[in-house]
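Quick one: structure tokens for this chain, please?
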Amino acid sequence: MATRNSVETKIAAINDRGNNTAAEVRDVLTEVLNYTENQASLETFQVVSASPIESTTNDKKLFFSIKGIKGETANMTLVVKPIPNATPTDSNQVVFMVPFNQTTGSLTVENFNLLAGNDAEGILPLIDNQNFLIYTIPLYGNDPAQGTLVIALARNYGDYNNMMLLSISNFRTGVISTSISMHVQKFEESLIDNVTNGNINVAVGPRAKATKPTEKDIMVFFNQLFSKK
């Protein structure tokens, strides 16, 4: 198998005075080609909403795209806008539920498994383990001008399976247009000394575990996720 060293060796053997045969040149080019083809290829993916996702309060719509390298990293671009002529709500928390239940397209079970993975190997954390991605994002035209975005996945949520959940706090008016990055990482908490506090995710004493989500009311569910067990 061609390696970088073998390619460099053959290149170095080329005669600078121009006395190289066609066979020698072909040999070098073939070695370069073999080396290039031997490199591992990166498999990319994209999950995109073909149509806007409506919020549970029926007054906001979400457009999103998740694009990246399988098993490694991804970037999520999202836009949230108000639905024209929608009835205003008193809630200061906007929630989107995105079921991966299609047989074709982006929102398939296969793509959900790609994002969720097994044993914390997915790009997004599983909500059943109380692991979340939390971001502070700009809220354009809203007061306050910043909110908190929570992204999580649930294999089982009430009557639903394979669900992506997005929650945005303090968002009443205006729009959101932002892009965030994420990557695969599994932290072995059992190997971290609690006394050193080397990991902010490790609390003193046993870590609380979330109960399996069964509540119908998604607002109650999110409140329970962030309350002490």
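The chain has two domains: 4-38, 44-183+209-225.
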